[in-house]
Amino acid sequence: MINVHHRAILCVGKSINQLLSLEKLLSLNFGQEYVIEMAENSSEAMDIIGTLFDINIETSVLITDYMVGDMNGLELIHTVKRKHQGIKMILMANKMDIDFAQRIINHSDVYNIIKKPWDDDSLVQLVKDACHQYDTDMELSGLMSRLRVSEQQKSLILESISESIIYVNLDYEIQWKNSIADRDLLIWKASGLCYKEIYGLKENCPDCPMDQVLTTKKPYKFERKFEDDTYKLIRYFPVFDQVGQPIGMVLTLLDITEQKRAEGMSASLLEMSKHINVSESVIEMYKKAHMYLKRYFELRLMCIAGEDFDASYIEFYGEGEKSFDQKQIETLLKSLRNIIKKNLNEDYIIMNNNMGTVVAYPMNDKIMLVVIKQWIETNEVALKYINTIAEQVKSGITKINNTKKITYQAKHDSNTGLYNREYFIEQLKARLNNQREIMNPQNRSIALIDLNYFKEVNDNYSHVVGDDVLREIGHRLQNSVRDGDVVARMGGDEFAILFLNHDRREIVKLIKRLQKEIAMPIKVDDLSISVSSSIGIVDNISKYNDYNILLKEADQAMYEAKKDKSGSGRYIFYEKSIQKKVERHNSIELSLRTADFDDEMGLLYQPIIDLKTMRIIGFEGFLRWRSLNGFNYSPKEFIPIADESDEILEIGHMVMKLALKAVKRIKEETGQGCFISVNLTTKELMNEKHIDGLKKSIVENGIHSNEIQIDITDRFKNNQIGLISKNINELKDFGVHVNLDDFGTGYASLVILNKMDINEIKIDASYIRKIRFEPDAYKMVKTMINLAKSMEISVTAEGVEKKEELDLLCELGCDYAQGYYFSKPVTLDEAIELRRESVSLYGIRS
Q1: Which pLDDT band, with edges at 50, 70 and 90, does 842 fall under?
Q2: What are phi and psi of 347, to 5 degrees?
Q3: Residue whose C-alpha is closest to residue 589's, from 649, 652, 653, 639
Q4: Of 267, 180, 155, 168, which is closest to residue 232 (Cα–Cα)?
Q5: What would the pLDDT profile of 470-488 be if each residue is shown by its tens digit?
Q6: CB 760, CB 794: distance < 8 Å
Q7: Is the Cβ–Cβ distance between 639 and 632 less than 8 Å?
């Protein structure tokens, strides 16, 4: 194939990937007019230049890396220049080389430098400039040789050059110039002095380079700004006579105003980019963009507009050299939105109207609108500048929004939107420090709020439902406090409030309202869920120096409030006495974790008497715990603590195992059966696996199901009744007798009787003790017995200690009784003897 190219561009570098990238880029932009060659080292580069020269292809531009293996880029440039002076040398340098390259660029053979990694557009433009410069130099070189041949040819050549060309003698007098110089510099007289005609000076330029150029015999160039704000690249070429004596100077002046403008735009874009990287304000970023646009254009308007409920609003308005009314802008924005909706794939919309050149940039839910005076659609540099500003603004909006989002997430709980634990503690520490610094600190208090039985919501309905409940609770808390109070989710189902400037009376009023709001039913899809709250409060926190102690004492107060198992919720202010209770609780909790339940716990058995026969028909099992360290723990103390964890399930399993063994042994040793009743806590009743385990144990021990009775209380919530009722019905279907214990002391006894199939109620001992002395207590017991009879439910009286109490119970028609009047709780051996001596004529109750 015959090569029709007459120019070449050579790239030298030791990085294959870099050379391939350059080859691809240069072939795309210069391949039609130039041969594109690559060399990996200086020797190969020199060979390629020589080969090209031999086939009449001139190397116009050489692009070399700073390091090329056997020599550095500067050495290669000097070597090439000795043989081929006209080639334009471009040095590529990374950041650490750039300062060195900059220092030598004006004193070497380097045409220009470019920093790595390069910008494709910048590199292409630089190569274009170098190619143009080479062509111009070649034209000038030819001109100089032809000047000696023909004056007529000289004039023709001068006029064909696209730059201003002026010849000046040694006395600084202009001897001739081309018509471009006439037009650009308004030089009408060939006899004028160069410094006067070109620069408008009265005296010779103080930094005139003529002497330097004539002495070194090398061309010289520099850039200069003129009074009309234009920039020109001025080059000096020495002219010598036939014997080598200097006779004058050729000056060329190339208008580089647009190039300088482009460089200024690039610098402005870099400044804008730096500002965006540190900006925390969207408005400040808009102002910067407005400033950079005004710097290079006759800007008439710049605004950022959003859309809210199909109506535009202007977020930022930056005026230019002409003002527009609001209606005119809104009409334009409406029109642009319609155009954008029809052209969703377009990066920007540009059009010309009576306002000027309008450029609009979609930015998600916003529009950036720029209106300038001149038409710029065909000006690629100007349009790219505006496009880049718009992209930077869009990027800045995203960055600032992301930063705000990250900041928000760092301070807020992701589910409820309330402040999180970390931010609450930060605020708490700040308030404590502030109170120590002021003379009369405000009365500030904190409250820790725990949702009662919330775990059952997650277990029964899923964590998704639980999250919905937490969000609604958070919303109610936030809406119930005053402005300035800090509400936070501390984790799980625990919340906290920092109250500012409230007295104790106001705190109580607020807490009661909060508990009422929390207790209101929460609708989640088709479900209606109710939760209550336990709240611990520390009033007047100014006396605290350590926030850890403050939170600890609030937590202790909250835990004390949680001991109320009525389900309605309770609040407690922290007092010193709570500390001892907490220490006792912690001691029991620790002992439970390390206890060997089989060795340390056991049952005592209290007889239950049939009041018609006055014979023992069964026993209630009472759990006792004597730890290995010798401490005796009351069930009223350790059962609620065990019920907070799964340890209660292990204890319950052990209790059932003991009860079954007792039933079996009593039957074996007395020849008569009886029942034993044991208590089940709410957690046991809610656990279907635990219920299945109880039934399995009864079967494995060969015990009749009616020989085991279950005592339950009414201390559970409405949303627990469904599952508990289901499990109780399973036990009853299995044949287990279910009793409602402590009847009359809870809040839901009648609800339980109405919703659950109960065999028996056990009237609490507190009523029996008062039956002899208080008419109201007598009436209540009578009412309970009559109610049970009407529902065909048996009645057991607990805590009978006096014969007079027994007589009244018999008079009222009570079925069964237990208490110290008959026997205290006894060991299994003692229970066997009691059963042997008092065999019921009617056998086991069914």
Answers
A1: very low
A2: -75, -30
A3: 639
A4: 180
A5: 999 999 999 988 888 999 9
A6: yes
A7: no
